[in-house]
Design a protein that fits this description.
Chain lengths: 875, 120
Amino acid sequence: MPQPSIAERLFRALLRAFPAEFRGDYGDQMTDDFRDQQADVVARNRRAGQWRLWMRTIVGVMNRAPREHLDILRRDAAYALRQLRRRPAITLGAVVTLAVGLGLNTAVFGLASTILWRSLPFPEPDRLVVIHEISVDGSREGTSVSATNFADWETRSRTLEAMTLVGRTTQTLLGAGDPELLIGRRVSRGFFRVLPIQLERGRAFTDQDYAPLEATAAGPITDRVTPEPGVAIISHDLWQRRFSGSADAVGRTVRFGKTSVEIIGVLPRGFEFPGAEEAEFWQPMVPENAGRRARYLSAFGKLAAGVALPQARHEFDAISADLAQLYPRANQGFRIRLTEWRDDVAGPMRGYLWLLLGAATTVLLIACASIGNLLLAQASGRRLEFATRSALGASRASLVRQMLTEALVFAALGGVFALLLAFWALPVLTRLAPADTPRLREIRVDGLVVAFTAASSIAVGLLCGVLASIAAATSAQSIRHGTGADVRGPARRFRAALTVMQIALALSLAVGTGLLTRTLRAVAALDLGFSPSNVLSIGLTPTGPQYSNVGVKTQFESELETRARALPGVIAAGIGSRPLGGGSFLNTFTIVDNPPRTVDASVDVVGPGYLEALGARLSAGRFITTGDTATGPLVAVINRAAALGWWPGSDPLGRMLTTDEKRLQVVGVVEDVRRNNLEAEPSPTVYLATAQSPNFWTNNLLIRTSSDARAILPAVREIMRSIDRDQALARITTLEDSLREATAPRRNLLSLVGVFSAMALLLAVIGIYSVVAESFAQRIPEIGVRMALGATKTNVIVLIVRHGMWLIVAGTLLGLAAAMAFNRVMSAFVFRVATTDPAAYLAAVLCVAAAALAACLLPATRAARVDPVVALRTE
Amino acid sequence: MASHDLHGRDPKALLPLTPAVFHVLLSLVDGQKHGYLILKEVAERTGGEVELSTGTLYGIVKRLLADGLIRESALGSTDRRRAYRLTDFGRGVAHAEAERLRDLLRSAQAKALLARPSGA
C-alpha cells in the first residue's frame, strides 16, 4: 500500500474536526475524492488551483463540522428526552432533586455574590475606600475616626483624591400630619467628590452651603449653639412619600424641628449608602473641633487615578506614625486602616454567607449523588439496550456521549426549574438575612446568577453523566463478552458508596443544625438582667435649639416621667437609654482609693423609675430616685460587673468615683443588664441620674404596665401632644419585640440551615430507599426460595434491612468524621455550646439513622409480603 | 409528477432546497455517481461557478440518505467509494424544486424583470 502523501495526511488531520461517527461513515470516501481532486488540479498544472482547492476544503470543513456535531447532539438529546418521557416518575424525581439542589445554590449564590463580590453601585467603585482608626494592640476594632485627625489626613494625603466624613443625625420633619422622625446623614465637603452621583433633581452641596457652618465651627466649643444646616438633599423615597414626587419639591422650604431647611436636591431612585440604608436626608456638616480623642464619625475616600490600595496604605501608615508623634495623648497606640469599601461592607457577613454556601453546596452534592445513583440504576436496567446498540456498531464513545447527553438534559431541566425556584427563594432568603445585612435591596437574579446556574448545571450534568456512562459502557461490554452476570457488581458497589456519602453529608448538616438549635436554647436561657414582659419603649426626639437650654430639657423629661407614671395601669416609667439598643457611652472614671485607679465603664444616664420599668434587679442599696436632683449630692448606681471588678470582696456602697471633676457616690448595685449584643458579657456600667447629668442626651421612655403594654400608647401620645406638639414619637416597640428582634439572626440562621438539613436528609433517605428497593427487586426469586423453605416474614425483613444497615453505619461514621473535621467552621456560630457537643451529635445521629432505617423498612415489609409462588415464577 | 413516497410524504414538503442540495440532486438525475464525480459534474455544469467542497458534499449526502432522497451502493470490490443514485422520491423532490424555480422565473418574466427566451 503506497504511503499517503503529505497533502492527504493533512486532509485526514482536517477531517478530525468531524464527529467520529461521520468520519467513520464518509472519511475514506472524502479522502479518495480529495485525492482525485488534487490529481485533477496537478494534471492541469495550476498552482492557483491548488490554493483554491485547499481554501475550499478548509472552509467547507469549518462550515460543516460544527453542524454535524450539533446534529448528533440534537439526535442524542431527542433520544434522551424520549428515554426520560418513558420513565416519567424517575425523570420527575431527578429533575425535582436537581432543581432543589441547584435552586438553593442559586439563591444563596445570589445573596452571597451581591454582598461579597458585586461592585458597589457607585461610579468607579474599585477606587472607593473606607478609612478606620484602629488600636494597634487590637483591643478596639474602631470603625470611627476623629474629625481633627481627619482634617490632617485631608491636607497630607496625595494618594486619595477626595475624602469625606459621614455622621448620623435625626430630624423631626414637621408639616401636614403627625411630626415624623427622619434618620439622615451629615457629610463633609468631599462627599460628592468621593461619590460623584447624578442627582434625580436639583444640585449637590456647594461651598456656599458649608460657609455658614464653617464660621461657627471655628469658634470655641463651649457655650455655643451648634449651627443647623439650612439645606438638605432628600432620598427618592422621601420625595415620593412626603412630596408625592412633585417637581417643585426642590426649592421648597420645610421645617426640621424649629429650623427652616431648603430642599436643594433629590437622590436617584435606589441610591443606598452602605450602612445607612435607612437615611432619608443628607445635610452638609463641618465637624466641630471636638478634640482628637473624640472618634465618632465614619470616613470614606477615593483613590487617586492610578493609585493602588497598598500605595495609599503605605502613605497612611506614615501619616499615622507622624500624627502619633505630634499628638501622643490622642494618637499613641492608634493607626489608620484603609479597606476597599466593598470588602468593608461585606466583612461582617463573610462567615454567615460561607456557612450558607457550604450548606447549599452540601445539599447539591447530595442531589448529585442522587442523580448519579438514579442513572446508575437505569444503566443496570438498560444493559440490554446498551448491549444491543453496541452490537449494532455503536462505539464506546457514542454510548458515553449518549449517557452524558441524558445527564445534561436532566441538568438543563433541573437548571431551568432551579432558576424559577431561585426567583421565589431569593426574597425569602433576603427576609431571613440579619436585619443589618448590607445591600439587601440590590439582591436579585441577574446575569451573573443565571450564568452561575448554567455553569453549575453543566458541571452537575457532566459529573453525573461521567458516572453513569462508565457504568453503561462497562455493562455493554461485559454483556458482549458474555460476562453479564457480574456487571452489576461494580455499579452496585458504586451506588452503595454514593448512598454512604449522602448519609454522611446529611448527617454533617444535621449536626450543624443540632449545634445551632442548642445555641438558640442557650441564648434563650441567658439571664438578661431585666424582665421584658409588658414594657413599652418609646424613642424621644427632643432636638432643636429650644432644648439646648439645660433647664428646658430637664423640665421636659421630668414632666413626661411624672405624667406617664400617673397613667392608670402603669407600674413604673422612666427615661434612659434604649434597652437592647446602642446608646451607652464609654467613659473613664477614677476610683477614689489609695492609690486612685482609673477604669473604663459604660455610662447610662437614667431618670427615676427607669431601672424599675426595665425590671432590673437591685442587689444592694437603691435605684435612682426623684430625690437625686441637680442640687443634691451626686450619685451613681453600678452593675454587678463593676462592683466585682472594682471592689472585689468588699462592699461598694458608699464608695466614691470621680469623672470630669465631679465626685459621685455609689448608692446602689444592680444585676448585670445585657445590652444590644445579648451574647457579650456585660461590661462594668455606671448609671447616673438625668437630673445630675444635664449634658447627656437620653432618648427613650420606658413604661412598665400591669397588662398589654401597647394599650397605653394613645394616652402617651396625648401627654406628648400637650407637652410639645412638635415632638415625634419614634421607635415604638415592646421589650418583648425588641428581644425577639435581637435573637432573630440566630433564629433565622437556624431555620435556613434547618431547611437545608431537612432537604439533605430527604434526598439521602430517597437515595437509601432506592438502593435497598432495587436490591430487593433483584432478590425476589431468592426470597421466594427462602420463604418456600420456611423463612418467616421477620427473617425476610431482617435480610433486607441488614443490607441497608451497613450503608447507614458506614454513612454515620463518615458523617461524624466530617462533622468533627468541620467543627472549626461552626465555632463562629455557636454560643455557650461546644462544637463537639455530644447532645447535638447524638440527636443528629438518631434522627438520620431513624429516617434511613425507615427508608429500609419500606421495601423490607414489601419483601415480607412476597408470595413465594409468584416470586419463584419470576426466575 | 410530484409523487409521494412509500411513507406518503409529499415532495413539496421538503422545498425549497438550498442551491447546493439541488445541484447534487441534479447531478444524479442522469445516473448514479460517486462523490468525486458529483463534485466534478457540478463544477463543469456551472462553468466553475459552483464548486462544492468534500465536507459540504458529504454533509448533504448524509441528509439526503437519511431523508430517503438518494440510495447508496458499492462501486466494486476494489473501490472504497460508494455510488449514489436518486430514489423515486428524490427524483420527485428535484422535479418539484425545478418546477418551483420555473414558476419563480415566470413571475420575474411576467414583471418584465427578465426577458422571455425567444421562441418560448
